[in-house]
Design brief:
The chain is 21% helix and 32% strand. With 218 residues, the chain is of the alpha+beta class. The strands form 4 sheets. Strands 8-9-15-12-13-11 form a 6-stranded antiparallel β-sheet, with helices on one face. Strands 1-7-4-5-3 form a 5-stranded antiparallel β-sheet, covered by helices on one side. The structure holds 2-acetamido-2-deoxy-beta-D-glucopyranose (3 copies). Keywords: Membrane, Transmembrane, Transmembrane helix.
Length: 218
């Protein structure tokens, strides 16, 4: 009996350290807009593969494939990127016992200006009160110049040109939604919004990929 219990204790202790090691291994993420780690995989959701160097997976996912949000690279066939779609987070990565393998995902990486922060590849749903054609560079200052504006999204849909979508009701880093690779909208929010601009946010419970209908060429 005692023997069984101590065996079990040992078993669970070893299991704990294996799991702990595994968890920390997949937590060593590097990069900003493209977060990646080694010896890991995001299983499923494949939308394509390409025989190419592992350092190209992130760029192709980000700027060529419209639906790509994450990827896995393995050394099969001399190096293959496996592109994947759909919402993903770092905790979904699993360890992959395959030397040279890499897994990665696109992330929102904020650039902080004095009055506002912005990022590529993101959007804020709802809250629109004005849209205006503009270059991406001018959209932030157009929002700053409008007291009603608390946040903005800039899109460059083919055939429409660049459009600055000014929004009110407030937004935070956490309310930004990643937009897949080639759809690359830019989103931003004001650090100190005018308190008078606080009209209620129009929220939607629809999944992000249903509300995000823009196909951008940014
Ligand atoms: C890899 O991509 C090619 C097309 O480029 C496709 O024909 C093939 O089925 C894919 N392989 C797998 C395992 O999905
Ligand atoms: C964009 O703004 C114009 C007015 O400037 C408005 O008529 C149009 O409905 C707006 N588009 C959307 C999709 O909100
Ligand atoms: C907010 O609105 C009130 C009344 O409309 C106005 O007096 C006040 O100056 C506004 N505050 C700001 C910061 O614009």
């Amino acid at each position: 009996m005692e023997y069984t219990i101590s065996s079990l204790t040992l078993y669970f202790t070893v299991l704990f350290y294996i799991l702990f090691d595994v968890a920390t291994a997949v937590n060593r993420w590097q990069g900003k807009e493209v977060r990646w780690s080694t010896n890991c995989d995001f299983p499923g959701n494949n939308i394509g593969n390409q025989t190419i160097g592992g350092d190209q997976c992130g760029t192709i996912c980000q700027s060529i494939l419209a639906e790509c949000t994450h990827f896995t690279f393995t050394l099969s066939q001399g190096g293959t990127c496996w592109f994947k779609s759909g919402p993903v987070s770092s905790v979904q990565a699993i360890p992959l016992d395959s030397p040279g393998s890499v897994c990665g995902f696109l992330d929102i990486s904020w650039i902080n200006e004095i009055d506002f922060s912005w990022s590529h590849h993101c959007t804020f749903p709802g809250g629109d009160f004005k849209n205006q054609s503009s270059t991406g560079r001018l959209c932030g200052s157009m929002c700053m110049d409008n007291p009603q504006c608390t946040h903005f999204v800039w899109t460059n849909v083919e055939g429409q040109g660049g459009i600055c979508w000014m929004k009110s009701g407030g937004a935070t880093r956490e309310s930004a939604i990643l937009t897949p690779g080639a759809r690359g909208a830019v989103c931003g929010f004001r650090h100190n919004p005018n308190p008078n601009a606080s009209v209620p946010i129009v929220t939607t419970s629809a999944p992000w990929f249903n509300t995000d209908t823009c196909e951008c060429v940014c």
